[in-house]
Amino acid sequence: MRALPRFSRPELIVSDRRIMLWAAFGAAVLCAVIQIVLYVAYARGASSLTELALNLLLDASLPLVIRFPWTVGALAVAVTTVFALAPGAEASRVAPPVAAPIVVSFLVVLLPWRQAFACAAVLAVPAIPIWSPSWGALYVALSATALPALIALYLKARSELVRSLRKRAELADSERHLLAERAETGERRRLAAELHDIVTHHVTEIVLHADALRVTTRDDDARAAAEQIRLAGTRTLTELRDLMRVMSTGVRMSPAERPDDDTGGDLAALAAADRAALRVEGDPGTVPAVVARAVYRVVQESLTNARKHAPGAPVTVTIAYPGDRADVEVRNVPPRRSVDPTLTGAGSGMGLTGLNRRVTLLGGTFSAGDDGEGGFTVTASIPAAVT
Questions:
Q1: Domain enclosing residue 268, as ranges
Q2: Engineering a disulfide at 65: which of 72, 330, 350, 356 sits with its beta carbon 3.0 to 4.6 angstroms away?
């Protein structure tokens, strides 16, 4: 545990200097008004006028105490000494200037505490005065020097303690965030290792067996199905590698890092594999690759959902490229045979949520739901101008 901060000259920030400057101006005006009122009420001739002039001189120097604390402190000692050594001054009637307690308070705040108390002690010598002491003068001198110094020291210590505790709280909060980030990074790397050791291994086996079946079988339909399985497994391995990179480093592949022609895959082949009717309107080249990939993912996930939840139902995929956006609609009619609970329970339930997030991040709109006739419709509209 770190020790409490030592009392040293603090590095005042701009707001602290502004506040202290306004406080010094206010104190100077208040002291000047009090002294003028006292002079008018209790004027005693030329000596009183001299005391007033010296007091006003010290008051006028108060705003300078922030930049020149030693100079203002020396001026306060000089004015107090003049009062104590004035002809006819009696020990019982000697009093330090009205601004002396304010000067002492500012010195404690601005100077290291040893130097500030040394200056207060020097100021107390002529304020007593020590060469002709009296109990009344001692009381007045200590009230004008030691008491404000102790009060200012307490306030300074409290302010520095609060500032130190605030910094410690900010540091502790930063450490908590750092530990949370480290834990998150470790968990991502662990999951990436699990994907590499388990999922990737099994998908690779599927691809290899599908390729072997494609080579050895003599049935054209089986060969075509094996080729589709092999292609799907290869795409899955590519996506898994991208996902493992994200989970290991926390950095997703940016659109600039992908090839310019990386549109996700062949939409025609994707629709043909699921025996879906595909209709494309407009030129797909009017949208950037990142939008084309999003379109592919919307169609891919929608066909997967249709295959799970509406087996045997015809599916229609409509994609339009008006020029400023890409519109996607995937619609299936009610299922023609019963749903396989094993197949529907194998998903994570996050497919449509992930599509919604992907489309929304690109500035588009997404919707999915029943069409009112027992079927299901997924629609997405993605602007071509993606920032």
A1: 264-383
A2: 72
DSSP string, 164-228: HHHHHHHHHHHHHHHHHHHHHHHHHHHHHHHIIIIIHHHHHHHHHHHHHHHHH---HHHHHHHHH
Closest CA to 264 of 151, 369, 355: 355
> Can you say whether the dihedral through the CA atoms of 235, 241, 244, 246 is positive or negative?
negative
Taking alpha carbons only, the member of 140, 149, 147, 138 closest to residue 116 is: 149
295, 386 contact by CB (below 8 A): no
Domain-located, residue 160: no
| Domain harbouring 304, CATH code | 3.30.565.10
Same domain for 212 and 286, yes or no, is: no
Q: Residue 3: inside a domain, yes or no?
A: no
Q: Give the N- to C-terminal CA distance of the chain in Å, as an integer.
A: 48
- Could you tell me if 298 and 327 are in contact, meaning their C-beta atoms sit under 8 angstroms apart? no
pLDDT digit string (tens) for 290-319? 888 889 989 988 888 888 888 878 899 999
Within 10 Å of residue 2's Cβ, how many Cβ atoms? 7
Placement of tokens 């089986």 in the chain: 222
Whether residue 276 is found in the same domain as residue 232: no
- pTM of the predicted protein model: 0.42
Tens-digit pLDDT profile for residues 150-199:
787 788 778 888 888 888 988 888 888 888 888 877 777 777 777 666 77
Residue 220 in any domain: the answer is: yes
Helices (H), 128-145: 135-144
